Amino acid sequence: AVISPQDPTLLIGSSLVATCTVSPDFHLKAEDLYWTLNGRRLPAASYAALGPTTLSVALARLNGSKQQSGDNLVCHSRDGGILAGSCLYVGLPPEKPVNITCWSKNMKDLTCKWAPGTEGETFLHTNYTLKYKLRW
After folding, report:
1. Comparing C-alpha atoms, which of 49, 46, 23 is closest to residue 36?
2. pLDDT at position 122, please?
């Protein structure tokens, strides 16, 4: 089985529609499936069959992830077996760094320092890229 999207990163308050598609080899149909989020079964009213072997779930107004490893969205077979899983990373990214200063002694080596922005409410992996341009 396959869940899509796989391991998405989302902002707090976002909505998500995920799908679970099982291979015909499993001999399962969409009505044989259900969803859990962090071990709690999601209400069937949030499901929609998108085809004979594909079940979607709609999640609205997501809260921040409760753990650094993300929230576990799992697709199960009727008997409780785990078919596929995805980690949802929900949060607010940290603010951009401030007070950036850079200097160079010889026009080749550049040294920079900065103060990090506030952490925000996040377990989101965030990368920043510093770009510079020589004035000459």
Report:
1. 46
2. 60
